[in-house]
Amino acid sequence: ERALYYRKDFFDEAGLSAPATIAETDAAAEKLTVREAGKLQRMGFVPWWNQGWHYTWGWAFGGE
Fold first, then answer.
1. Domain assignment of residue 2, yes or no
2. Which of 15, 36, 43, 64 is the most exposed, having the fewest neighbouring CB atoms within 10 Å of its CB?
3. Total domain count, the chain
4. Would residue 25 count as lying in a domain?
5. Exposed/middle/buried for 28, CB within 10 Å: 0-12, 13-18, 19+?
6. Secondary structure (DSSP) of the chain
7. Is there a domain that residue 48 lies in?
8. Which residue(s) pair with 35 in the sheet?
């Protein structure tokens, strides 16, 4: 089993609840990304950072 850690304060600020699906995660990532003066200030989601992403994303899309 896997867990997704998230910043509740960022989600609250954006009017979002915790995502339950990949599609919800993708939509939340768009809303949570912050740019100022054309520069990235905050990324909505970083799947490769400390996530064990090979396994996490493989399982999320039906791998065993």
1. no
2. 64
3. 1
4. yes
5. buried
6. -------HHHHHHTT-----SHHHHHHHHHHH-EEETTEEEE-S--TTSSS-HHHHHHHHTT--
7. yes
8. 40
pLDDT digits (tens, 9 = 90+) for 5-22: 899 999 999 999 999 988
- Residues spanned by the domain of 16: 8-60
pTM: 0.68
Asked if residue 1 is part of any domain, the answer here is: no
Q: What residues contact residue 32 under an 8 Å CB cut-off, 6+ apart?
A: 10, 11, 14, 16, 42, 43, 44, 45
Closest CA to 53 of 33, 31, 25, 34: 25
Task: Convert the pLDDT of each residue in 39-63 to its tens digit.
Answer: 999 989 877 656 566 667 777 788 7
